[in-house]
């Protein structure tokens, strides 16, 4: 039995519109995905992901589709819009991509990233960020966040590189004992076989990612995506040019961050400064 095609929402997303038009014109031409793959020299699996809006459109696909269907630049115009569009399923898709990552690189300017949070620290952040939530709802959010930490366990765990702004260490989240436990939990990750943590000190001054956070995911197929986040919004970037621009900003920060030894000493100093 032929599986039901994934439902698209072309009225809400340019990426979905691209996929819907691709499917419509392919079916109108009486072509299967295998037929189209042979014409434009793409794999069937890749075309399926583009047609169902499950992956960012490849840069050369639009021109090939316009040539195959004789659509006079339609797909090129849609791609120009889709490449800068926030993914409509960005949070779910970010988690899916994170699970496939072989390397995770994060910059955080305000809090410890979720993958490195203790339960008490995460609970305090979620409680403050969701003041109208019930205790049961907070428990559910905490459990979900702690579940993400399983990514760092087992033989297939990704390599984790984290850059923290010094403010992450200096701002006390929760009671002093909560913050002390969180800082202590960072120390084994500062310089380990499976990860590294560095601090960008206050003295560095302004930088390209000031005011937000960034995650770079290198996937199991060698491609990279970026996820940038502000207070209430997040944007998943899969376009190669945008990802490269964010990687350059991350690399500059890493070059200016403290060494692992200096980072460990600064974390220990921040712990000692907490009231007892």
From TrEMBL:
InterPro entries: Cro/C1-type_HTH, DUF5753, Lambda_DNA-bd_dom_sf. It comes from the Bacteria. One of its GO terms (molecular function) is DNA binding. Pfam families: DUF5753, HTH_31. SMART domains: HTH_XRE. Residues 22-74 form the HTH cro/C1-type domain. PROSITE patterns: HTH_CROC1 (PS50943). This is Helix-turn-helix transcriptional regulator. The lineage of its organism: Bacteria, Bacillati, Actinomycetota, Actinomycetes, Kitasatosporales.
């Amino acid at each position: 039995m032929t599986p039901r095609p994934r439902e698209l929402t072309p009225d809400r997303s340019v990426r979905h519109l691209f996929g819907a038009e691709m499917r419509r014109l392919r079916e109108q031409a009486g072509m299967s995905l295998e037929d189209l793959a042979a014409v434009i020299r793409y794999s069937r699996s890749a075309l399926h992901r583009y047609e169902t809006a499950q992956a960012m459109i490849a840069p050369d696909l639009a021109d090939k589709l316009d040539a195959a269907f004789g659509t006079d630049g339609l797909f090129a115009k849609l791609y120009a819009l889709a490449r800068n569009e926030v993914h409509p399923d960005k949070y779910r898709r970010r988690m899916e991509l994170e699970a496939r990552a072989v390397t995770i690189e994060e910059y955080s300017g305000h809090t410890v990233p979720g993958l490195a949070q203790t339960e008490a620290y995460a609970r305090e952040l979620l409680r403050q960020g969701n003041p109208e939530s019930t205790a049961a709802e907070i428990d559910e959010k905490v459990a979900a966040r702690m579940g993400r930490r399983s990514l760092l366990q087992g033989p297939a765990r990704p390599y984790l590189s984290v850059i923290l702004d010094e403010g992450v260490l200096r701002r006390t989240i929760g009671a002093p004992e909560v913050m002390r436990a969180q800082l202590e939990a960072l120390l084994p990750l500062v310089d380990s076989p499976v990860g590294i943590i560095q601090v960008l000190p206050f003295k560095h001054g302004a930088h390209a990612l000031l005011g937000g956070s960034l995650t770079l995911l290198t996937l199991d197929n060698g491609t990279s995506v970026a996820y940038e986040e502000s207070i209430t919004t997040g944007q998943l970037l899969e376009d190669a040019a945008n990802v490269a621009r964010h990687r350059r900003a991350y690399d500059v920060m890493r070059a200016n961050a403290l060494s692992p030894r200096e980072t460990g000493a600064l974390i220990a100093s921040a712990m000692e400064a907490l009231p007892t």
